[in-house]
Specification:
With about 170 residues, the protein is α/β, with parallel strands linked by helices. It contains six helices and seven strands. The longest helix has about 35 residues.
Length: about 170
């Protein structure tokens, strides 16, 4: 009985240590993974699979990646901010709006904000698995700004004013 009282706390401590170390390792892997524009596979609103590094001009121009949800009030605010200030964004930038939601909801979001009217904006579907692997656990909206060389410049969580995005995309 005394052995059991000694063994159980030791096992608990070892188990907690293993979980803590693996969690720290995962965070470091994600941080190093987002320090450069990630190699991600997206699905267009037409259902076409796209490998971002192969198909977009992401490395020749500043790019903002915004992880969002169509059901998120903060994301709605973010989109209104971007649309209201779209003429102030640099012409040589790209804003990728990524969500794990179904294509139908993303098309409705796309149409609601008339994203087709703005060359710098694009909406894509990204799987939850890819979000977790490439960006870690994030709340929406989560914004990652990359320079023209694909290096992470800034990262924001939550509502971010358009002026801040504009400043960070102007290189």
């Amino acid at each position: 009985m005394k052995k059991l009282l000694i063994i159980v706390p030791i096992l608990a401590i070892v188990t907690l240590t293993i979980f803590a170390v693996s969690g720290i390792r995962h965070k470091k892997e994600v941080r190093s993974g987002i320090s450069q524009f990630p190699d991600i596979e997206l699905k267009s609103l037409s259902g076409t699979d796209i490998r971002i590094k192969d198909s977009l001009r992401a490395f020749s121009i500043p790019t903002a990646v915004i992880l969002f949800s169509t059901q998120c009030d903060f994301c709605e605010y973010e989109m209104k901010e971007i649309i209201d200030n779209i003429s102030d964004f640099p012409a040589n930038c790209k804003i990728l709006l990524l969500s794990s939601e179904n294509i139908v909801d993303l098309r409705l979001f796309h149409d609601k904000y008339k994203i087709y009217d703005y060359e710098i904006l694009s909406v894509y579907q990204l799987s939850n698995e890819q979000i977790s692997k490439k960006f870690g656990t994030v709340s929406t909206p989560a914004i990652f700004i990359y320079d023209q060389n694909g290096a992470l410049v800034r990262q924001f969580t939550g509502e971010t004013k358009a002026a801040v995005l504009i400043d960070n995309l102007s290189f």
